[in-house]
Amino acid sequence: MLESVKQVKSLHFVGIAGSGMCPLAIIAKSKGYQVTGSDLSRGKNRDILDENGIMVYPHHDEQNAIHADALVISSAIKNDNPELRWANANKLPVYHRSDLLAKISDTYHLVTVAGTHGKTTTSAILSYLLDIHNQDPMSVVGGHMHHFDASWHLGKGPHFIAEADESDGSFLKYQPTTSLLNNIDKDHLDHYGNFDRVKSAFNQYLNNTKPNGTTVISVDDEASYEAYKAYKGKKISFGTKRASDFQASDIKVDGQFVNFQLKHKEQNYACRLKSIGPHNVANAVAAIATSFSLGLPIQKSADALKSFPGVARRLSIIFESPQLTMIDDYAHNPGKIAASIEAVATAFPDHDVFVIFEPHRFSRLDTMYNEFIHSFTKASQVYVTPIYAAGEEPSDRHNSSTIAADIYRASSVDSYPYVNEDQVLNIISHRNHKKVVILTVGAGDSSKIAYSIKRCAIAKQKDTSTKGTSPKPETQKEE
290-337 pLDDT, tens per residue? Predict the structure, then answer.
């Protein structure tokens, strides 16, 4: 921890433009640290760092770090990185990003949001509700919050909202005053080895809550319900299935909204959530329950849901025309993918759902392959892109052709290797004007594929003089 360094004034971030590192670097600078970084990529986050006056070296070199008091890394940084090697050789302190986040947040009422699914959406809703209640929270989440136009918010209030990422076990470094647990599902077995260890880690996460703190725990899935029963401290339950302190019922999809009833004690609240898919009801209930635990009135939170503007890449509509709707989503494990497909199929019942699936990590495929190939039963067609390695060594165990064949075998859904934009759009054009949703799912380059198809679709519309319709204005800026 940073307490071990008496005079830490300057921090150097390795891989500073990463989605988790960029907002933390900006927050660190706002707290008075001198911040520099290095990153090979040149994209939107580099521009954001430039705008915030943070020096970013476009290469990794030991000279970049020689003026820093400490190095900050993420789990993505390999041991052979020259800056990390230099720091270790010269006994420069090296901290994981979670160490820095724990240090910066220790003067706040820290609220951490954990769970296999829904962390980003729940964190964003909670941050939005606290802002609606004039709490002005400090926030850092895993996606672009449209309300704040960033994945962070430099709030001046007493609360710090942070996602607690279980993927590498670093979420166990936090000692929150309020801890939220959405669910516990099988994932990240490459790190934990088996599901029992996953469950044990989430139980430890809850037990790290400060003695005078509160936990807010879902009782919907069996593993989180067992964690709720085992936890001995102050706790609040929520859910959509079992009886709970905050219970959602009468869930009804209304296009791109979801209506539901929320019951707390003997009081009922009518809620209308601006979101595609009933699976986000649990995220909204979690956020309301947590805001209540912080002393905020339920009615105002419930009323605010209908204007929640959402999070980028969480079932985000990026294109609409009379025959084609395009939706981009970050889903990259089996449970998330199945939930996203079902949500889209429910919201667009008169459309076929074409899914473009980008497999994420060879290790995730190895440990959850059977679950993956059974995740597409609600789709009309599936197109499988090359595997996004996320820094892992390539493997010949799986490829887009074998995955597509196995999806068809497991789910009886027509599945093909993804080739290019024309492949999908040409098939759609020969479907006798049947309405189609194209849903891209993945945590790598799938969003780039989505916007490439969008550009191609717009070009085809302009070239087709017999059609008198044109696409609606863009609903979201290209990420």
Answer: 999 999 999 999 999 999 999 999 999 999 988 899 999 999 999 899
- The radius of gyration of the chain's CA atoms, rounded to the nearest angstrom, is 23
Residue 472: φ, ψ to 5°: -70, 160
Tokens linked to 66: 């020689």
User: Does position 478 have pLDDT exceeding 60, yes or no?
Assistant: no
Residues paired with 152 in a beta bridge: 140
User: Domains along the chain?
Assistant: 2-97 (3.40.50.720), 108-307 (3.40.1190.10), 316-463 (3.90.190.20)
CB 372 within 8 A of CB 359: yes
The answer to whether the pTM exceeds 0.85 is yes
Length of the chain, please?
A: 479
The structure tokens 């597409």 sit at 376
The average pLDDT across 182-210 equals 94
Q: Which of 174, 119, 176, 130 is nearest to 156 (CA)?
A: 130
Cα distance between residue 8 and residue 11, in whole Å = 8
SS3 325: strand
pLDDT exceeds 90 at position 190: no
Dihedral pair phi/psi, residue 437, rounded to 5°: -110, 130
Helices and strands per DSSP (H, E), number in the chain = 15, 21
User: Which residue, among 47, 50, 56, 60, has the nearest Cα to 16 in the 3D structure?
Assistant: 56
Q: What is the pLDDT of residues 89-148, one digit of tens each?
A: 999 999 999 999 999 999 999 999 999 999 999 999 999 999 999 999 999 999 999 999
d(CA 321, CA 367) in angstroms, rounded, equals 39
Find the mean pLDDT for residues 170-197. Answer: 94
Bridge partners for 437 per DSSP: 325, 353
Arithmetic mean of pLDDT, 220-247: 97
Question: For residue 471, what pLDDT band results from cuts at 50, 70 and 90?
Answer: very low
Work out whether the CA dihedral 57, 106, 75, 225 comes out positive or negative.
Answer: negative
Going from the C-alpha of 109 to that of each of 162, 309, 443, the distances in angstroms are 11, 25, 31
Residue 243, pLDDT > 60, answer yes
Which residue type occupies 239?
G
- How do beta strands 150-153 and 55-57 pair? unpaired
Dihedral through CA 283, CA 289, CA 291, CA 295, nearest 10?
Answer: 180
CA distance 7 to 318: 47
DSSP state of 176: -
Looking up tokens 């970084």 gives 37
**Closest among 378, 371, 380, 379 to 406, alpha carbons compared:** 371
